[in-house]
Amino acid sequence: MDIKFTTNANIIKALEVFVAVVETGQMTAAARLTGMTQSAASQHIGTLEKHYDVKLLDRSTRPVKPTQAGVMMYRHAGRILQAVGELASDMRHQGPTPISRLRLGLQASIATTLSPGLVRMAKDRFGVQDMVLHAGQSGDHEALLRTKQADIAITSDPLLDMDGLERHAVLTEAFLLVLPPGFDQPVLDLEQVLRHLPLVRFADTTNVGRRIGQHLRRLRLQPERVIQADRSSMVTACVADGMGFTLLTPTLLIDGLVERMPLDLRPLPGARMSRSITVVARDGELGELPKAFAEYARVSLVDQIAGQMGKIGSDALAGLEAEEEPA
């Protein structure tokens, strides 16, 4: 059934889909972020093009790119969706409690650890009545915040290119060398490890995958692309089964260690690398909640890491006590 602009809500939904397509470069990813099938997302774009009698996307390229008309539509859509999001936020906060509904994006690797405590805190301390939780990668969180489908995110990307956000540091963590059980070869550098084992890596579509790729290029290493995955639990499962080694941070290892996967954790040899986890929210909309979420996440993750990984996990929390909130 064709989608027609019978209401303003249809137009807003079509604009949300269009923005998601432009920012992800993929109709499939945009459909997933906006909670619909790829067919429905395509219909929204087609109806938008028909309504304004323009071609908005160049579908012959990968990733999909906006046309000249699409660039103009993207600018207008951003302003419209921001205004609609601000209206929705103001209306939600006029309910019987200061924050009646909260939409939270969580890094997939820490979602299981943090979700129960954050939900409890939101309801008991801040009076939130309704919570919507999204687990995913940092790219998912950016799209959700841009399209006003999330109010706050706990993510490995502080989204410094987005204006109008407040940011609260959670922790900074060093990457570790993760080996399969029983690995008994010398480990002076990653090149030595690669002589014996392939690298099980995160897909380049993920933020951590890109970070690891950059690190390897700096070391002038080009491991074969044998196994790629977009979830830490899949990566650790392959390593635990002896299929290779990987580079992960403590928070990326939590789920695997909770499931008692046999892993040999060591400091990363040679040049070190790290990543940060940050709470990001639209500036000033949620009062003290974002800061409280960051404080809870820090304590909860540190306790979990210390319990699962002992000294090597604690040592990998680089500069935690001195970490200051980014501007």
UniProtKB/TrEMBL annotation:
GO MF annotation terms: DNA-binding transcription factor activity; transcription cis-regulatory region binding
Source domain of life: Bacteria
Record-linked InterPro entries: LysR_HTH_N, LysR_subst-bd, WH-like_DNA-bd_sf, WH_DNA-bd_sf
Domain HTH lysR-type residues, every copy: 10-67
PROSITE patterns on file: HTH_LYSR
Gene3D superfamilies: Periplasmic binding protein-like II (3.40.190.10), Winged helix-like DNA-binding domain superfamily/Winged helix DNA-binding domain (1.10.10.10)
Swiss-Prot/TrEMBL keywords: DNA-binding, Transcription, Transcription regulation
Organism: Falsiruegeria litorea R37
Protein name: Hydrogen peroxide-inducible genes activator
The gene coding this protein: oxyR_3
Family that this chain belongs to: Belongs to the LysR transcriptional regulatory family.
CDD domains cross-referenced by the UniProt entry: PBP2_LTTR_substrate (cd05466)
